[in-house]
Amino acid sequence: MKKKYTLYSKWLKYILLSISLLVIYNNTDAAQSNFDSEVTYQRANIAFRNTNYEQAKQLYLEVIQHGVISYKLYFNLGNTYFKLKDYTHAILYYEKAALQDPSDEDIRYNLSLARNFIGDKTEEVRPFFLITWYNSVSEFNSSDQWAWWALGCFLCVSLFVIFFFLAGDMHKKKLMLLFSFIFLFAFLASFSFSFYRYKLLKDSIHAIVNQPVVNAKSSPSDDGTDIFIVHEGTKVQMLDSVGEWKEIRIPDGNRGWVLKELLLPI
Amino acid sequence: MKNRNAQIVSLFYRRSFMALALGIVFFLFACNEVLRADDIEVSAPRTVEVGQPFQISFSVSARPKKIEPPLIDGATILAGPSTSSSQNVQIDNNGQVYENATFTLSYFIKADKEGKIKVGSASVNVNGKVIQSKPFTINAVKGSRQASQNQQQGQRGTSSSDSKVDGSDLFVRVLLNKNSAYVGEQITASIKLYTRLEIIGDEGVKLPTFNGFYRQDVESKPVSQFDRETVNGKVYGTAVIKKFVLWPQKTGDLVVDPVELQLVVQKVIRSHRARSLLEEFLGSGPSVENIRQVIKSTPVKVKVKSLPEPQPASYYGAVGNFTLKTSVDKTKAKANDAITFKVTLSGSGSLNLSEAPKITFPADFEVYDPKVNENINNSASGSSGSKTWEYVIIPRNAGKFEIPAVEYSTFKPVTGKYSTLTSQAISLNIDKGDGVTNGVVIQRNDIKVIGNDIRYIKLGRGRLKPAEAAVFGAWYFWLIIALCVISVVVVWRFWKNKVILASNVSLLKQKRASRMAERRLKEAASLLHSSNRIGFFEAIHSAIWGYLGDKLSISPAKLSREAAFEMLQSRSIDHELLEKLSLLLDACEMERFAPISTFSSLDEVYVSAREAITQIDAKLKSKKS
């Protein structure tokens, strides 16, 4: 029995060691570039505060080129574009920021303000109410936050299952089972929200129109009939792509084909 | 006498009644005193003969407060100024009071010599408003009939006698410039009067309704001079009374209904009617009669042809000769700036019936309904001028746009064909607007209060992370989940072991059962020595039951003789032993109520209990092993 235990502890040691090595390796690699990026980011913020918007824009874009992002970065870049009166890009970066942190109220506010200057006000087709609910609940947190919630809930599920095993009498056992089911449900919900938002982030299914007036065609060719007109700054959903063409869906449900280069994927 | 008095009295009453009634009328009149003070109407001949008296009068349809007579120069005033006024109060069935007051100032004047008589302006003050007549001049010419200067004073006053005026002496005609036209083609119409008599009064023209026509009056001066024209060998004085431009609105034979003219003409009476004493007295000479005469024109037919089919799509009702022009006030503008786009149609024809052309503006433009400006001149030769449609267009986005050429088809009646006018296309260059014009933020759809600004940037640490980094799906995400699962599994296994151990508790009890029974029997033995009979039996009882419960793992609640015996039987304990056990238990239970002596002594009970337990124990043990 004692021998067995020592074997376990040996394995545990190896695992812990490899994990810590992995973490340290990751961190040292990222730490330096993170530090540089942070410096650039702060310089950009200072440039913005000095109303030196052109410089701020350059610096923010430089940070993005480093491959690091945050909702703050996107939001500040959106603000910079707004001040430069480039509302299309302002909308683009606000949308990106909103994807990163859907719960931030400032982002929504600035986004709606930017939309007033540009873009179409289309009547949105309301999807099935459960989808709307799901979507709006998912916007309480970002993908990462939901992921942490999911982990926390799963931890609780595990704890209560353990308590269930350890509990002496039947009454306590029932209570523990109830709790574990509640947390299991919470886990499943936050897991799915996290996954949903993760998908939104990674797949970039939406785009912003980047030309004052765009005629959406009925087919992916120049001689297709014009179906509708979308204006700069309108958020569209990308569905299909054929060559240089993308099929888009505008919020009122209409579909048409536009050239890929006229869209800025979020 | 009495009768006469009564008559006087009644007369008096009647008079006072009338006075009362008159008073009421005047009261009503005063209440409703809305005097229409128009211009001063001047009636005077334009040309007079020297030495011949004539009348000039100034009349105003109101009761003036103050009158200033005109200055008359170059003539002798024979009589006057004399004033006359007339009032006419009417009350209709509805109680509405109409009043009509006329005040006339008249002179009788005689021209002394050839030349001009200057008549100054007369002014009256009506309700505090001063009205002045225009000064005018009268030509005095050498008279031809100075001798018969009294003839005019013959019979004055208009007679509505039955005396007829010969139709060939006085008639009216409606003259059209064409009797056949296309729909919408303009026709000029004139009402012409032909007379061989002297016309001294014009009491109005009654125009027909002109069914099927759209009519526009041509402004014309009042008739002052008669032209001479020979019709059927007779010389007539002619005058065009009114002119119109007519546009037929439907095809077929349209009829211009008769025009009615009411005139007062002077006719020299050559009849041998007996002259009145007065006439005899005043002198000889032909007497004249004023006759009120209504004359009617004959209906005129117009053949209206329909426009040839097919009509071009760009035909908007313009018939005539036109030119088309389009213009914008600026070709370079910023987004959201208003641009004025004008379409001007000019020429002669049915301008007022022409409608705005359809213009396909760039899809992105906001276009307001056009403002229509008409500058149409209706003259004897027809209607001409220009019509302008002014569009306000607001480009909402930057870019290069083109207002396409405007097509406007017109119908030319001369050739009987349509011709399409095409304007130049106009290209517009729209720059990006700054969104703010005149201090108001013009937005795509809503106007928002100015002063909104974006929320300020986020300060503090950037919390930057690699773009691809996500907690979901990261290795540690799965690791944590895996660790949780592992820990649960570990605990589950531990729990399972514990459950097995717990089942071992009853095993332990089984093992301890005979030892426990031994202890209880010892207890019973000590009670036996202290001759506590009841205590002894209870100890035996509990020893047997305790042993059976532990040994057979039966919970105390379920422990009964049947259950225990059944179990013992199933474990192949022979019947004899069970009988023995049964006797023992009976003895223990009965002892409390009715002691029976199945057993000779308490010692025997003790021994047999001990024997039974050991025997069962031995049997169960042997079975197990």
Write the layout of secondary structure elements.
The complex is a heterodimer of chains A (266) and B (625).
Chain A: H1 2-49, H2 53-65, E1 68-69, H3 71-83, H4 87-100, H5 105-117, H6 129-138, H7 143-166, H8 170-203, E2 206-209, E3 213-217, E4 226-231, E5 235-242, E6 245-249, E7 255-259, E8 263-265
Antiparallel strand pairs in A: 2-5, 2-8, 3-4, 5-6, 6-7
Helix pairs in contact in A: 1-2, 2-3, 3-4, 4-5, 7-8
Chain B: H1 2-31, E1 41-43, E2 47-49, E3 53-60, E4 66-68, E5 72-73, E6 75-91, E7 97-111, E8 115-119, E9 123-126, E10 129-132, E11 136-141, E12 158-159, E13 170-176, E14 180-182, E15 187-195, E16 198-206, E17 213-218, E18 227-231, E19 234-248, E20 252-256, E21 260-269, H2 277-282, E22 287-296, E23 300-305, E24 315-328, E25 332-334, E26 339-349, E27 365-367, E28 371-379, E29 382-395, E30 399-403, E31 407-412, E32 417-422, E33 426-431, E34 436-437, E35 440-441, E36 465-466, H3 475-529, H4 533-552, H5 561-570, H6 575-591, H7 602-624
Parallel strand pairs in B: 2-11, 12-22, 14-23, 24-31, 25-33
Antiparallel strand pairs in B: 1-3, 3-7, 4-9, 5-8, 6-7, 8-11, 9-10, 13-15, 15-19, 16-21, 17-19, 18-19, 20-23, 21-22, 24-26, 26-29, 27-29, 28-29, 30-33, 31-32, 34-35
Helix pairs in contact in B: 3-4, 3-7, 4-6, 4-7, 6-7
Structure characteristics:
heterodimer; A: about 270 residues; five-stranded antiparallel sheet; two-stranded antiparallel sheet; globular; B: about 625 residues; alpha+beta; seven-stranded mixed sheet; 36 strands; rod-shaped
